[in-house]
Specification:
Oligomer: homodimer
Largest sheet of chain A: 11 strands, mixed
Strand content of chain A: 5-15%
CATH topology of the largest domain in chain A: Isopropylmalate Dehydrogenase
Strand order of the largest sheet of chain A: 3-2-1-4-11-10-5-6-9-7-8
Structural class of chain A: alpha/beta
CATH class of the largest domain in chain A: Alpha Beta
Radius of gyration of chain A: 20 Å
Number of domains of chain A: 2
């Protein structure tokens, strides 16, 4: 177990600070050390006497603010203070559910990038039908990407896959068809560069094939990657909603669903669409987890688990997913 | 009921001609008149004596062929002959599961576009959680799109929504966030143009919001649209697969699932991820349905139903979805 806590930006996110504080307390009850970064007075009034430590920070990034302007405006923003706790080694990782753009700029500014990395990317792990894991990047950090940037994402993704225990990660380039020559202009320009890297590149991969086990690392730009994740999430939510409506039409099927409750619970943990803690920022010097802006306490708890395990920790108790 | 049959390109698709012939016979048994276009000898040997008429065509487009080169090579390609049946009014609609690019070029060449339409788009209807329908376009016809082209898709989508019975269709621009200024370069350039059309534009829409009822028409380029559909499909397939695995771990949950079989069957019809017949080509002079390359006989049957109903027909029997 790591001694240094996970620094939680308590002021960022649609439901801040309430959801952040509650999620941090949940993660702490799982055995993960945390500290909360933000307005000392507000946070102090929300925490029990034996609560986690608070690191004072005065500023907050507004959701409409330009990322660069926000970071330039103040070095006392909660997100920047949380990142600096990581830089000086007082925290093992940082979690923020606030303005993603500002988090990225602050991460490059306050933590710096790993050698050879031009821009960090967000990696998100999706479940695959064969039980494996699919690392998708970029999940939303870099919206318009040049081919060279996509190639750097492939390298980041392969390194991350190895950290997660995949011995020989296969890299796929997200496309609308498998054949060489498929894809938009950026994809068509990227494939030959990717094939020249020496990585195990399987070529263009469609989302369906990737999710059924075609590769471990799926590379795309942050716009398409973000749309893909939200489409997958929306489709499963829609399917669950429509299935529930049909089940509620008869008592027999409601009883059937009751018999399935254990299987459904295990399924929810495996698919974890609504529980997963967001993405890991790859390419910066230090572990940073980018949570969902809409994160509820449970999602915050998962983001803290993700940050802690990515930084190399094991929870003292509780269950990670 | 329309008198003119649906012309089915029997030679296009991964499982042609077998799946096309079987699917056409299924649709015919539902009361939809069909004719099969392709190699007269092969098709003749596969059909019963009282089978549907065959329109002879010699050429087939290879999956690796350049669309323009293929269409230029011969006017006797099965897809072109099927489209010309529509043009001369001997068929009410055409269905092809072959090379999408060649189908598009042939449709523009052999049918022509509606006045004011630069390039046709493929529209696909997705289920929404609120029970409504989401018309997504472009689903794969135009890979790299300029803002003006996306605006033309919005107009095509609104017209199609009205055909489907939506009185006041709301248009969303697919993006990675709701705020103005979100999106990639093309999206950011498109939003103001879209807002100036006079259409009911709700602005940038994320996939999750669109699928839960945020708009009726969702506009994007053919690359992102195709990826979105395949991501949604892959996510639901993955979810179903993982849930099934969990259900099979206990007898009680298997009994529970058995009690749910009626609800699951109704759910499958509503969500129809694996049954839907592909997309409708919008903007050409005549009804064309673009089926999946991997279509099995059931998917071909659905594509023929879709073509027939889009052309204004009612099946004499059977059930449309």
């Amino acid at each position: 177990m790591l001694d240094a806590p996970v620094a939680v930006d308590a002021m960022g996110g649609d439901h801040a600070p309430q959801a952040l504080v509650e999620g941090a307390l949940l993660a702490r009850s799982d055995g993960i050390p945390v500290c909360l970064v933000g307005d000392a007075e507000i946070l102090g009034s929300m925490l029990p006497p034996s609560g986690p430590p608070v690191i004072a920070a005065r500023g907050v990034v507004g959701m409409g603010e330009s990322p660069v302007a926000a970071v330039r405006r103040s070095d006392d923003l909660s997100v920047r203070v949380a990142l600096r706790e990581v830089r000086v080694g007082r925290a093992c990782a940082a979690v923020s559910c606030g303005h993603t753009g500002a988090l990225l700029v602050a991460a490059v500014f306050d933590l710096g990038t790993v050698e050879g990395v031009e821009r960090p990317a967000i990696a998100t792990v999706l479940p695959r039908a064969d039980g494996g894991r699919l690392i998708l990047l970029d999940a939303g950090a870099n919206i318009d990407c040049k081919p060279e940037l996509l190639v750097s994402f492939a390298r980041l993704g392969v390194d991350y896959a190895r950290v997660l225990g995949v011995a020989s990660p296969r890299v796929g380039l997200l496309s609308n068809g498998e054949e060489d020559g498929k894809g938009n202009a950026v994809v068509r320009a990227t494939l030959p560069l990717l094939q020249a890297t020496g990585l195990d590149v399987v070529g263009n991969v469609e989302p369906t094939a990737a999710m059924s086990g075609g590769c471990e690392v799926l590379v795309t730009d942050g716009f398409v990657g973000n749309v893909l994740i939200k489409a997958a999430e929306g489709a499963v939510q829609t399917a669950v909603h429509l299935l529930r409506e049909e089940i509620q039409r008869s008592r027999a099927s409601m009883f059937g669903a009751w018999l399935l409750r254990g299987a459904i619970e295990r399924f929810r943990v495996r698919i974890a669409w609504d529980a997963h803690g967001g993405g890991v920022l790859l390419g910066t010097r230090g572990t940073v987890v980018v949570g969902h802006g809409r994160a509820n306490p449970e999602a915050v708890r998962q983001a803290i688990h993700l940050a802690h395990s990515t930084a190399g920790g094991q929870p003292a108790g509780g269950e990670t997913t």
